[in-house]
Amino acid sequence: MSLIGVSMLEMRQIIEQACLPDRCEVSCTDGNSLTIRLGQGQSLEEGVTLTGVSLQNLNSCRDLVNLVGQLHALRNTHSLPLKAIA
Q1: Which of 1, 21, 23, 47 has the maximum number of C-beta atoms within 10 A of its C-beta?
Q2: Nearest-angstrom CA–CA distance, 71 and 31
Q3: How many domains in the chain?
Q4: Where are the beta strands (DSSP E) in 8-77?
Q5: Quick check: 3 pLDDT over 70?
């Protein structure tokens, strides 16, 4: 993970809390990249899925803010789940 001293659990919490009040789920099954689902309100059905977000590209808080902004922009322009690489 590129953010030195930040565990995967902390990274998940930071991203999920930054997306509040919308529901967000962050997972990292391979230890290298994130899969993030962002819904509308408490439902994930009307949201987007962003896959392949490399942990090496998350080096600062600014990178996390940009990621959350990208998630919201994707969700606002698409009504169906999609695949994208950040």
Answers
A1: 47
A2: 21
A3: 1
A4: 24-27, 33-40, 43-54
A5: no
Residue 50 DSSP SS3 = strand
What is the token pair recorded at 59?
């080096």
**What is the value of pTM for the model shown?**
0.77
Count of alpha carbons within 13 angstroms of residue 46, beta-carbon side: 6
Of 22-36, 40-54, 62-76, least confident by mean pLDDT is 40-54
If one compares 82 and 18, the residue with the highest pLDDT of the two is 18
Which residue range(s) make up the domain with 73? 8-77
CA torsion sign, 33 to 57 to 17 to 75?
Answer: negative
Pairing status of strand 43-54 against strand 24-27: unpaired
Does residue 3 lie within any of the structural domains?
A: no
Please report whether residue 86 resides in a domain: no
